[in-house]
Structures are given as structure tokens and as C-alpha cells.
# Entry
Amino acid sequence: MQETTNYIMDAVKEFDYSTLDAINFPGPDAYSTFWFAYSDKMTWIPFIVIILCCLLYRTNWRNALLLVAAIALLFFLSDFCVASFKPLFGRLRPSHDEGIMNILHYVNNYHGGLYGFPSNHASNGFAAATFLTLLYRRPGITVCAFLWAIGSCYSRMYLGVHFPTDILVGATLGVCVAFVVYFLYKKAYQRMSMSHAMPPFSTVYQGREPWPVIITFVLTLLCLIGFVVI
# Structure
């Protein structure tokens, strides 16, 4: 049993090292600058604000409060709770792992915190993307949301601060959290609608136009590219 466990751990370590070494290459300055900016959560504040505005637009105050509570719970579970796992697992980030840290390429000397398993960027990104997909059920929203999440995950590996398995586990946790929160939100909405005049849950978001979110996503990418070029 111990030999099997050791074999699996060695295989995971080899996968992480070899995959990260391929992703974390010393790219051109513009390429590195782009992904460094992409990885910064502050970059995406306008995108997140637009999404919130679109979700809350023409929404009655009861549902608005319920939605805000659901989103707060979503990020509490995907961010704070996931972050609390890191000291428990105690797995060093690649930028602090003596087995690979000295061969990695770092941007702006950024190394991140000590522990990296699981990844908060991955859990947050995939939780948000999955939750939006479940709400809107619109292909354009799904594509933009998951491209954003995947880009965030790639940026963390390119910067050398997360192993691929940090990302995979974080993303999986994020998806699971989103399904749980969506289920709770839907049930709470349906119970509230029984005592108040509220439209059916299936009609609240799925009929909304996806263009504001899509346009904001594209404009954010263009601004990042412009920032790099200038």
C-alpha cells in the first residue's frame, strides 16, 4: 500500500515538474507583462462589476438580496475556505520548492505566498464561471466566463506560482462549490416565490442578453493588450 502511494506521489510530482517547466518559459517581455497583469485580480474589477449590474438589472429587491447572499457564499467557500486548506496540506508553491524553484522564470520577481495547494485563482475563477453558466444558460456567457477562468489559471502557472495539480484541484473545488450554491440559491428563490409575486426562476436570467458581459470581457482583453503594446 505504501509503495503504491509513493508511486502515485512520484508520478504526480513528475507530472507537475515537467508540465510546469514547459509552461513557465522565459517569454518576451510583452507576453510576460500581459500575463502578470491578467493574473492581478484588480484588472478584472470592471468586468465583475458589469456582471453584477447585469444580474441585478430589473431584479426585485428580494431576489437581489438573495442573489448577493448567494454570490457572497460562493466566494466565501471558493476563496476563504479554499485558502484555509493551504496550511493543512502544507504544499509549497513551485516558487518555494527547492526541487524546481531555481530553474523557473519569474516576472517582476513575483513569487507568491508560501503554500499553493489548492489554487484560489482556480477555485474562484471556475466557481464564478460555473455559477454564471448555470444562471444564464447562454453559450456566449459560458465561453467568456471559462476563457477568463482558464486564462487566470494559465497565468498562475506561467508566473511559476502554482503547479498544474494546484490548478486542477482548485478548479474542481470551484465547480463543486458553484453547483452547491446554485442549488441552494434556486431552492431559496422557489420557496420565496411561493409567498411573494416573483417570476419563475427559469425566466429570471436565461432570457437576458449576454452582450454587455461579452463586450466587457473583450474590451478588458483589448485594454490589457494595449497596455502591453504601449
